[in-house]
TrEMBL record:
The keyword ATP-binding does not apply. It holds the Pfam family Sel1. Keywords: TPR repeat. InterPro entries: Sel1-like (IPR006597), Sel1_AlgK (IPR050767), TPR-like_helical_dom_sf (IPR011990), TPR_rpt (IPR019734). It comes from Anaerobutyricum soehngenii. This is Sel1 repeat family protein. The lineage of its organism: Bacteria, Bacillati, Bacillota, Clostridia, Lachnospirales. SUPFAM superfamilies: HCP-like.
């Protein structure tokens, strides 16, 4: 059987296409623009038309019985064609229609025309196929063709081309052509070639998503996500994931991790992250690294953590590159390697990571893994600080405050601290608070100081919590209890200085009930971190048996650790250990060495004991130098010792000056009172004997034969002495002498008491 396919346009009332099986018949000009009834009669004239049936039989090379006719057109035209066929004695079978098969000839013609550059004929054939076969691929082809032509044509044809394009896109879309549906979504959502219509856009997006176009499902899921419809967002991400989409797997993992549109399930989240990560999704790889790092939904695994971070970083994910930089910078899970850290920071910085640039600047600031370059660090900080990155703004403030890479400018430092603090950067808030606290680059203001430090502390910044504790402790109106509370918050975060401070609170009962065991615990925690002050306190605990059994050896050990860190109090106490033989062999020379170290740092007690050491060795000049500052502090005993050293060094006037200070002290030195009175007494004796020797000298010149002369001279001298003594006791010096003898006598000096008796005075 030969199938004759007739395609007729009823609107234009003309034949469009004629084919026998897959053979297209082109020479049909006679009937092309004529109504159907005129096809069948013969026309022997100029046209030479033998009639429709005769032409078909000749072309097909068969009889009428071997023909099957198929008509594509409207019903009325088909009825007319059917009547004409039947008059020719041919049976018309409606059930033989098969558009997909019947359009083969047109497809062949269309392809040939298109390939040979006859686009107009090819386009006509594609339209036939699109219409009568209702072929969505050809409908989409036409839509795409007209759309491209619309983009390339002159303005006067744009409207017509766009109209044709949209017509075919819609026809194809209604025939479930997924690309056409997605294209309509793009056209209506962009609003570039026609007025934006979100409702129409979402309608076609949903259709494309239902037809399993992954991009459409993604866009639809994002649409629901944006509109806070987590349930539908999760549903579409799940459809994507089930089709093997690694993006869908990652997003589904996010839904489970956050509990978005579904019950939170970290274990399930990790499984989807894994699926996406193994598929090469860089963010999923990074997230999986975080899970292994934090033990979220999976057991912590440092090896897996680094593996996934590395994969993500090597694939170019900027956050992973920054993370790898931090790992090597801080030595977290890897051997610390600043050069490798810098390499990762640079990669991340090239992708615009402000965090990476900030950390890279810190490497240049401190010379970690590179030559120290303060200026470069400053410029890096400034570059990203001006972009509003708070951490860099704080760092820039520190550069101005410390003069790193730029001249010191405290006002500028405050300016940048403020910018960062207003963005809730905890470090900057603490720095700004300290500026107001100590009047650095700004007028001192306790209210603003406390405000900013408190803001930082409330964010959990341990440094600020410790600072706030110190502030409250030192400002009585806030109370020591509040200070203790802030110290405790910081201490529990591992802040070493705060741990030392809270240890002091427990040791002294400041803001909390005294507890030497708790004090020892916190001192020990801080000491393990190398805090010199805490190590000193550990030594004190062991020396005095506070919170732990007495152990002079352990005390000496901790004093030595702190002393080697130049902690003056520990140097002094280590000196005492050597002097007293506690935990070490008695060694006064070693004691003096440590006293001297502490003394150079201004430690008063160390200066005093160092003075005693020099005094014992009759090194009067060194003793005077060591005693000077302790004496100026008002200790009568030291003042007396200083006076004695001056005396030994033959500096009588300075000696009397310090004896007088010690004697007039609110807690006077009995030795100083006695020594000062004795000095006055010596003055009296010198005065007496000076006058008497003069008289005696005159009497000796008298001849010996005159036996009366010498006794008379001596008697005269004695009488003169009594008179002079009386005059001296009534003088200022004499009164001072009696005053200090009386003061010494009242303080229990037997020598002073005897002296007063001999002079006829009471006390």
């Amino acid at each position: 059987m030969k199938k004759v396919i007739v395609i007729y346009d009823d609107k234009k009332e003309k034949l469009i296409s004629l084919a026998i099986d897959e053979d297209y018949i082109e020479d049909i000009e006679y009937i092309k623009n004529r109504p159907i009834p005129e096809w069948f009669p013969e026309c022997k004239g100029r046209d030479g038309w033998d009639g429709f049936i005769k032409v078909i039989l000749d072309t097909a090379g068969c009889s009428k019985e071997d023909l099957e006719f198929v008509f594509y057109g409207d019903k009325d035209s088909e009825e007319v064609f059917k009547e004409c066929i039947q008059r020719e004695g041919i049976v018309y079978k409606e059930e033989v229609k098969n558009p997909e098969s019947d359009m083969k000839a047109n497809k062949i013609v269309a392809k040939k025309a298109w390939d040979s550059g006859k686009n107009k004929e090819g386009l006509r054939q594609y339209k036939i196929i699109a219409k009568y076969e209702n072929n969505k691929e050809f409908q989409y082809f036409l839509a795409d063709y007209y759309y491209k032509e619309y983009l390339n044509q002159e303005e006067e044809k744009e409207e017509e081309l766009l109209k044709e394009s949209l017509k075919y896109y819609k026809i194809a879309a209604r025939n479930q052509h997924v690309e056409a549906q997605y294209k309509l979504f793009e056209i209506y959502s962009n609003g570039e070639i026609i007025e934006k219509d979100n409702q129409e856009a979402i309608k076609w997006l949903k259709e494309a998503a239902k037809n399993e176009k992954v991009e459409a499902q993604e866009k639809l899921a994002q649409y629901y996500e944006k509109n806070k419809d987590d349930f539908n967002a999760k549903a579409w991400y799940e459809k994507m994931a089930m089709q093997g989409s690694i993006l869908g797997a990652y997003k589904l993992g996010e839904c489970y991790m956050l509990g978005a549109g579904i019950t939170k399930n970290e274990v399930e989240a990790v499984q989807w992250y894994k699926r996406a990560a193994y598929g090469g999704h860089t963010i999923a790889q990074y997230k999986l690294g975080e899970c292994y790092e934090n033990g979220t939904g999976v057991a912590k695994n440092r090896y897996q953590e680094l593996e996934w971070y590395r994969k993500s970083a090597e694939a170019g994910y900027v956050k992973a590159q920054y993370k790898m930089g931090v790992k090597y910078d801080k030595g977290l899970g890897v051997t610390q390697n600043y050069r490798v850290a810098i390499n990762w920071y640079e990669k991340a910085m090239q992708q615009g990571s402000l965090e990476a640039q900030n950390n890279l600047a810190e490497c240049y600031k401190y010379g970690n893994g590179c030559a120290k370059n303060p200026r470069r660090a400053f410029l890096y900080f400034k570059q990203i600080a001006e972009k509003g990155y708070a951490e860099a703004q704080n760092n820039l403030g520190e550069c101005y405050q410390q003069g790193v890479g730029i001249e010191k400018d405290l006002a500028k430092a405050v300016e940048w601290y403020k910018k960062a603090a207003e963005q809730d950067n905890a470090r900057a808030q603490d720095n700004l608070g300290r500026c107001y606290w100590f009047g650095i680059g700004v007028t001192k203001d306790d209210v603003l100081a406390r405000k900013w430090i408190k803001k930082s502390a409330e964010q959990g910044y341990a440094e600020a919590q410790n600072d706030l504790g110190i502030y409250c402790r030192d400002e009585s109106k806030f109370g020591r209890k509040l200070a203790f509370e802030w110290f405790e918050k910081a201490a529990r975060q591992g802040h070493a200085e705060a741990q030392t401070n809270i240890g002091e609170c427990y040791k002294e009962g400041l803001g909390v009930e005294r507890n030497t065991q708790q004090a020892f615990y916190w001192f020990n925690e801080a000491a393990k971190k190398g805090v010199a002050r805490a190590r000193y306190y550990m030594g004190e605990c062991y020396e005095n048996g506070e919170g732990i059994c007495k152990n002079f050896v352990k005390a000496e050990e901790y004093y030595r650790k702190a002393a080697n860190q130049e902690y003056a109090e520990a140097q002094y106490r280590l000196g005492r250990c050597y002097e007293l033989g506690q935990g070490v062999d008695n060694n006064k020379n070693m004691a003096a060495i440590w006293y001297e170290k502490a003394a150079k740092q201004g430690h008063i007690e160390a200066q005093y004991y160092l003075g005693k050491y020099y005094e014992s060795r009759e090194l009067w000049g060194s003793a005077i130098e060591s005693y000077q500052k302790p004496a100026e502090q008002g200790d009568a005993e030291v003042q007396y010792r200083l006076g004695r050293c001056y005396e030994k060094n033959r500096q009588r006037e300075k000696a009397i000056e310090w004896f007088k200070m010690a004697a007039d002290n609110s807690q006077p030195s009995v030795d100083a009172c006695l020594r000062l009175a004795n000095h006055y007494c010596e003055d009296m004796d010198e005065f007496f004997w000076g006058r008497n020797l003069t008289l005696l000298g005159g009497s000796i010149l008298i001849p010996v034969a005159n036996t009366i002369t010498i006794p008379v001279a001596v008697a005269s001298a004695i009488a003169s002495r009594k008179l002079s003594k009386s005059h001296f006791l009534e003088s200022d010096k004499g009164k001072e002498m009696i005053k200090y003898y009386q003061k010494a006598a009242r303080l229990g000096s037997n020598e002073a008491q005897e002296k007063l008796k001999s002079l006829g005075y009471s006390w």
